[in-house]
From TrEMBL:
The keyword Coiled coil applies. Residues 11-36 have a biased composition (Polar residues). Residues 1-52 are annotated as: Disordered. Residues 134-194 form a coiled coil. Keywords: Coiled coil. InterPro entries: Probable_transposase_24. It comes from Gossypium arboreum (Tree cotton). This is Magnesium-protoporphyrin IX monomethyl ester [oxidative] cyclase 2. The lineage of its organism: Eukaryota, Viridiplantae, Streptophyta, Embryophyta, Tracheophyta.
């Protein structure tokens, strides 16, 4: 496996005139031993000229010089140390709590609560608690669950039942809003029906007026026709009377002048 090199880090070595030499800096590449750092703070200089101090830590260069086997061992040692520092260990392993909860829900077919999830992740394969602290917490949770079940099983009226819960209040306010919206919709429907009725009534009145006007117009036309007929009849009679009068005048003249 190729060795990685640090490009921007270089260890400041002791001056040439110093009597002490640092044997850690002469560690061969690919060595299987992790060099021990001195108790003194180690100074590291970067290419930009800055300096930083590290105390009691393995340098990155020394870690990169390790082979793959030693690197894995070092990681295992770090992981073991970090797990030992945990206050409460669990049996979830590398799985996340969400994955463990999903697997439990799929296997049992029920929703996993917080108390049940703590009980699942803090018991060994033989169903015994992992630590005494976990056992104490489980006992407390068991007592709390029993107390909660005892409270919920009582028949007296609880404050939530008397005053109403927030969800009930929310439902009540929602019902009020829905009732108000329904009232507004009913009012709008009534107004719309009244408007439609008024429009129909106005249309009927307009049609009635138009029919009345048409009837009057037709009556006027009929009256004009009657007047014209009467005038024609009067003219005819006048002409007839004129003719009769002329005939009578002729007859009278003939009677006055005897034939010679």
């Amino acid at each position: 496996m190729p060795r990685r090199r640090l490009r921007d880090l270089s260890i400041i070595q002791n001056p040439p005139n110093s009597k002490e030499t640092n044997s850690e800096q002469q560690t061969a590449i690919g060595s299987s031993n992790v060099p021990n750092t001195a108790d003194e703070p180690t100074k590291i200089q970067t290419e930009s000229g800055g300096r930083c101090k590290t105390r009691r830590r393995t340098l990155l260069k020394n870690l990169y010089n390790l082979n793959s086997v030693e690197r894995v061992k070092d990681r295992e040692r770090v992981g073991t140390t970090s797990r030992q520092k945990q206050k409460f260990t669990h049996t979830a392993g590398s799985k996340s709590f969400a994955c463990v909860a999903d697997d439990e829900e799929l296997s049992s077919g029920q929703k996993v609560g917080h108390l049940q999830f703590f009980d699942i992740t803090h018991r060994k394969k033989d169903r015994s608690p992992m630590t005494t602290e976990a056992a104490k917490i489980m006992e407390k949770l068991k007592d709390k669950r029993a107390e909660y079940e005892a409270i919920t099983s009582r028949s007296f009226v609880s404050p939530t039942q008397y005053f109403g819960s927030s969800s009930q209040q929310y439902m009540h306010s929602t019902n009020q809003a829905q009732a108000k919206v329904q009232r507004l919709r009913d009012q709008m429907a009534q107004m719309q029906a009244s408007t439609i009725k008024q429009i129909a009534q106005l249309k009927a009145e307009a049609a009635s007026r138009e029919a009345e006007a048409q009837r009057k117009y037709e009556l006027q036309l009929q009256l004009k026709a009657d007047v014209a007929t009467r005038e024609a009849e009067a003219n005819r009679k006048y002409v007839e009377l004129q003719l009769q009068l002329q005939n009578m005048m002729k007859m009278f003249q003939q009677s006055q002048n005897p034939p010679s």
